[in-house]
Amino acid sequence: MVLLRDPEDPKVFWVKRARTLSFMARYHAFPGGQRDAADAEIPIENVPPSPDAMTAVMRVAAIREIFEETGVLIARGAERLSAERRLELRLELAADRISFQELLANESLTLDAGLLTEMPRWVTPATMPRRYDTRFYAAWLPAGQETEIIPGELEEGEWLRPHEALQRWIDGDSLIVTPITCALQALAEGAHDFAARMLCVPEEEREHWESRVEMRYGIYLCALRTPTIPPATHTNCYIIGGDEMVVIDPGSPYPDQREKLDAVIERFIAQGRRIREIIITHLHPDHIGGVMHLAEKFNVPVAAHRLTAEAIGIQAGGEVRVDRFIEDNEVIELNEQVTGLSWRLRALWTPGHARGHLSFHEERTGSLITGDCVVGFGTVVIAPPEGNMIAYLASLRRYLELPRLTALMPGHGPVLADARGKIEEYLAHRQAREEMIVNAMSAGAQTAPQIVKAVYTDVPDAMHSLAELSVVAALEKLETEGRVARNGNQFALVV
Ligand SMILES: [Zn+2]
Question: What is the full per-residue pLDDT of the chain (495 aa) written as tens digits?
Fold first, then answer.
């Protein structure tokens, strides 16, 4: 629900999702929630005629959710209730002492669909781990009411002018998803008919938005299906910049996915932009599968770390023509004349998952392109000899030293707003696994498969061969530190 206030100087209400949520933690969003089965029982007047069976019930759900989340009661008759009474009712509803239907009946309130304005409906792209079919509505804040967030699923709420919200997004101070960005852009051009204008956007344009999600201004994510490691099914390709852009990890070898990316890039070129370079984070097939196709189709040079080029470069007998080496700490600057904005991508050599692994820190917005160092769901496989646990942990710690860190943009899975929290979680996870490995060895496990059986009880058997690689990586670390001695395939604790 897009809540608006002050028609002469319109402001919009957005909320920040809590750190503890498993999906879109710390993103900014509009308040709302999911339909309840009981919403279908609640009468609502003035529902516009529609063949869509959900037309009425979704409006009821929106009104109920907005009351639960913000305390704003959008109903005819609500003006008779004092602020204290509304809060009392909200708390009773939250405690399940009363249903929304009973509350409306007891207080003689009538729901009126005429108080809501319909906006476009969005479905989460198929590449996301969790998907929602979302209806958006707008409503003006009823006179005499205020919003109040009770901390829990939401950290905070704030009223601001639409262009101020967009500026925060441009500056890297907030992460939002495309439907919210589009709504804010339409609101910034005029709040009184923005919904109608949004509904006029052709389906084709909507599909285009979905094919490349603009995570931050000038930072586009195009998730492409690749032969990768479950639970991931896609590799994130990032396209970054203004007048000149770079393409990071066009990883798909599949013709339909290459076509999808080609179309996205053709549109950028049609806007007068130029693709400066294709950049590879690391050598794995799911990150390089589309590199040469793109390089040849658009006549664009390819850049990677020297160690990556030595593994996959044509000069070294590989398949990828690497034209340029990227050094640690090199800054790639991309500008946009019309806005005066720039993107400064600082290359960070972050070995551990792969020897020549590069990450990129966009310094203006604090966005970190992590490649496979951190991923959006699950953890990363550290597979020796390419993988090295000591180097990997050092790379994660290097991330924590970055001066500004507002989002992790991983090679797989969703962009993460709780950047530091995620990195610390990764470090803690590796520490905990190492302790479990040492404990399993104290209890008699001597080989990597024995240790996997004892330690990876939370992982399906099909994943055990991958888990074994991570165990070997942990054992190699312990061996380097002098805490484990190796004899062939047998490992023993040094006491
Ligand atoms: Zn990888």
Answer: 999 999 999 999 999 999 988 888 999 999 999 999 999 999 999 999 998 889 999 999 999 999 999 999 999 999 999 999 999 999 999 999 999 999 999 999 999 999 999 998 888 877 766 788 899 999 999 999 999 998 888 999 999 999 999 999 999 999 999 899 999 999 999 988 888 888 888 877 777 777 788 999 999 999 999 998 877 889 999 999 999 999 999 999 999 999 999 999 999 999 999 999 999 999 999 999 999 999 999 999 999 999 999 999 988 888 999 999 999 999 999 999 999 999 999 999 999 999 999 999 999 999 999 999 999 988 898 999 999 999 999 999 999 999 999 999 999 999 999 999 999 999 999 999 999 999 999 999 999 999 999 999 888 888 888 889 999 999 999 999 999 999 999 999 998
Indicate whether 425 belongs to any domain: no
Query: Please, are residues 239 and 212 in contact by the beta-carbon 8 Å criterion?
Result: yes
Residues 39 and 60 in one domain: yes
Tell me the HSE value of 372 on the side-chain side, using a 13 A CA sphere: 29
372 alpha carbon – ligand 1 mean position (Å): 5
Ion ligand 1: protein residues whose beta carbon lies under 5 Å: 284, 372
Question: Is residue 234 within 8 Å of residue 226, measured between CB atoms?
Answer: yes
What amino acid occupies position 332?
I
Read off the tokens for 374.
């951190």
489 CB-contact burial (10 Å; exposed 0-12 / middle 13-18 / buried 19+) = exposed
Q: DSSP 3-state assignment of 31? A: coil
261 alpha carbon – ligand 1 mean position (Å): 20
104 domain residue, yes or no: yes
Owning domain of residue 326: 212-417
How far, in Å, from the CA of 141 to the mean position of ligand 1?
Answer: 48
Distance of CA 169 to the CA centre of its chain: 14
State whether 170 and 284 are in the same domain: no
Q: Are residues 182 and 237 in the same domain?
A: no
Kindly state the helix (H) or strand (E) to which residue 367 belongs, with its residue range.
strand 367-371
Say how many Å lie between the CA of residue 232 and the centre of ligand 1.
11
Is 221 found in the same domain as 199? no
Q: How far apart are CA 129 and CA 118, in angstroms?
A: 27
